[in-house]
Amino acid sequence: MTRRSIIYGLVGGIAIAAIFYTAQAIGMQSLPGPFYFFKTKWYFISPLIISFALQVGLWKATKQMSEQHAGAGMVATSGGVSTGAMIACCMHNFTALLPILGLSGIAVFFSIYQSQVFLISIALSLGGLVYMKLKYLKTKRMCGRML
């Protein structure tokens, strides 16, 4: 992996953390609220942020190899799964707004099954990480043959 792909990974991790914080702050209607939530659920949130950052880094490294060696092909990342999962996990904080939108059942569901949704999200995120690692290795092998 190159320095650029590591920087992309770090920026991706910071970006997903910012998206998560923003969604939480809007839902809780509190700026410090997301920090307290993170303190109590860090063991769920940290793997999602780290997995997303690693997926972004692998995606960038794979993309760079593909661009340097024409024909190696482009890949798509499953990082969107991490983003969607983290946003879905904080939907219960939007309880005050969701009845207006006609979505109160969704807020109740995520509130009751928050831990299970986090676990499923982590599993999907790890699956995306494995997928990206395999794509990276495949592209690396293909590029090695082209030299």
Which structural category do the helix and sheet elements fall into?
A: mainly alpha
Low-confidence stretches: 71-79
CA radius of gyration is 18 Å
From the spread of the alpha carbons, the general shape counts as: elongated
Main pleated sheet: none
What is the oligomeric state here? single chain
SSE topology:
Elements: H1 3-28, H2 33-68, H3 79-89, H4 98-101, H5 104-112, H6 114-146
Short description:
The protein has 6 helices and no strands. With 147 residues, the protein is mainly α.
Outline the structure in words.
With 147 residues, the chain is mostly helical. It has one domain. The protein contains 6 helices and no strands. The chain is elongated.
Keywords:
elongated, mainly alpha, 147 residues, 6 helices
